[in-house]
Each structure stands twice: as C-alpha cells, then as structure tokens.
Amino acid sequence: MQNYAPNYESPHYQLYITAVQANAKVTVKVPPLNFKQEKTLNAGERVTISLPTGVEMYGSKRSPNTVRIEASADVSVTSFNSKQYTADTSVVYPTTEWGTEYFIFTPASSSYGSYKEFSVTNGKESNKLEIFPRCTIRFEGRVYSGGSRMVIDLQPYESAQLQSVYELSGTRVASQHPVAVVTGHTCTWHFAKCNHVYEQLLPVSGWGSSFIVPPLTFQSKFDSVFLQASQPTQATVHHGNNKKVFTLVRGQIVEINSSNPEALSIQADHGIQVLMLFNGVTRSWLHYYDPFLMAILSNDRFCSSYSLEALEGFENKA
User: Fold this and answer.
1) Are 156 and 126 in contact (CB under 8 A)?
2) Which of 21, 172, 180, 269 could form a disulfide with 73 if both were Cys (CB 3.0 to 4.6 A apart)?
3) What is the CATH number of domain 207-298?
4) Is 240 left (phi over 0), alpha (psi -120 to 50) or beta?
5) CA 239 → CA 43, 92, 170, 225, distances in Å?
6) Taking the alpha carbons of 199, 95, 67, 180 in that order, is the dihedral positive or negative?
7) How far is 213 from 114, CA to CA, in rounded Å?
C-alpha cells in the first residue's frame, strides 16, 4: 500500500521469510515487473527478499503488481514497507487464511495530505468485490458516497487500493472468492511524528471471542485498542479492577485506552476483530517511537512455538 507520499525518499519494500522445516524451496515473483527470486532454506533459516519499487500502489485504483509467494514447506512471512522516517511491518497470512467478508478499521488521526486506506488482493481466479463504504471514496475517477454499493471486478492476482480523507472504519468488503485485505493509513500520528501504518486483516470467519492485550512497557501515556463487530455483539472488557460492557452493532467500533501496568482481558458473545494502535512516544526533541498498527489474535490461536523477526537498524523489543 501507499507509504506517505509518492516518490518520497529511500523506499524499501522487503519480505522476511523464515523456514519452519528443512529444505523449504521458496519462490517470490511479480510477473508484470519481470521479478523472480528463488531460495532454499533450512529449518529456522531466514532470507530477506528486496522487492522492486513498482509493487507500491498509489492512489485509489487497481494494480497488477501483486507479489506472489510460494513455498514447498511451511514458512512464516513478514512484510516491511519503509521510506525515510516512516515504516511499518505486517504478518503475511497464507491464502488458506483468506476469506470472503471483512470489516475495515483505519486510524482516524491524519496529517495534512495523508489518507486512510485499504487494499484488496485477489488470488488465482477472476473475482467480484462488493464494497459498502462508510463515507465518500473516490476510485478510478468515480466518486462513491457513504452507504452506496461499489462493485469492482478483479483479474487473477490483481489488487485494488482504496483511499479517502474521510472515515473508512466500518466499511464492509465482500467477495465472490477469498481475498486478502490490508488496512492502514499513509501517515497517522498521536504522541509522536506521523508514520505509515498497515496490517493484514483476518476475515470475519477468522475472528475470535476471547483476547488478552498486554500493555507496551515503553508507552508512557496510552495506546488504543479497537473492538469491531460483524453482528449485534456484547463485549466485556476487564482492565485491572475496572470492568466495562459494550453493546455493538454490525461494523461498529469502540476504542479502549490501554496503559501500564495492566493487561486488557476481552470476552465477547460473538466473534470480534481486535486491533491495537501504538500511539507513539516522544522521548526527546529528536527521539521518537512512531505509531504502528497490529492485529490481536484471539486466545484460541495461541501456540507453543514462535519465530521472532528482528529488523536491522531498529530497536527491537519483545
């Protein structure tokens, strides 16, 4: 997706791929850009793939330059979108985790000239999207008002990016065949400088009903946790000795402040989507931790083995 402004300084688009099993052959390709790399990895080995600049999408339109990743054995994949002073990462889910219904969340705070945005990526079959925008969206020269119905046809391995200066949270995306949806903001800010944030979403079918959200120890103020429903839902949130009960309707979002030292415990009577926005920290006049966005997985997705991806040139914390 679009990171900050077009043609901004020092763009880097990378994939970090780690093998879970030995002798994993990995292929990364972008056929319209004549890009292809192949690597064979041992168990626990990581490779960094630098992508061509043509993979970044600008504006509200379609793009054929979808990155295709194939592996002969299980791998974990993290994407990295970086320009000078603005960067974020996201886990990349396998196509088996894709779905046909999503609800969009985008951060509200914007700097001048920035956009709320999301993208939809298609797989190997021609596909039809139905998008029900919350507010006005301009796409390929046409303006769609809030409450309208957009229909977008996607060719195999084609992507569409949609941007707006207005509120996109609550927008519903439905498709004939499974798709991937990534959401974010070209440059959002709160307690620090503005930063590009993005995250791949899970479809409604992958939502859960029980969550734990630990606080970030380096946050001196608060971060924001967002709950979103796909149907009438009651959610109960415990934060220390405090308890709040929320009643949500379809697409509705509630924001909860998360601060040290207590974790949030969330229970819902139907599946919900939970995301956390790190609001940034100002350490000193020239020392900032900029915002990032991450999806919170439900407790039933916990497992006993993890791979941590550290980034060169950054302070890495776990």
Assistant:
1) yes
2) 21
3) 2.60.120
4) left
5) 39, 30, 25, 12
6) negative
7) 29
Please tell me whether residue 204 adopts helix, strand or coil conformation: helix
- Measured torsion, CA atoms of residues 141, 128, 249, 97, in degrees rounded to the nearest 10: -120
DSSP state of 232: S
Q: Tell me whether residue 140 is exposed, middle or buried, using C-beta atoms within 10 angstroms of its C-beta: 0 to 12, 13 to 18, 19 or more.
A: exposed
The residue count of the chain comes to 318
Joined together, the tokens standing for residue 166 give 């207005």
Summarize pLDDT for 91-119 with one digit per residue, the tens: 999 999 999 999 999 998 777 889 999 99
CA–CA dist 97, 202 (Å, integer): 7
The tens digit of pLDDT for each residue in 132-141 reads: 999 999 999 9
Measured CA to CA, the distance from residue 74 to residue 237 in angstroms comes to 35
What pLDDT is stored for residue 20 in this prediction? 92
Residues 74, 166: contact at Cβ < 8 Å? no
User: What ranges do the domains of the chain cover?
Assistant: 207-298
- Tokens 């990995």 locate to 26
pTM above 0.90, yes or no: yes
pLDDT in tens, 11-24: 999 999 999 999 99
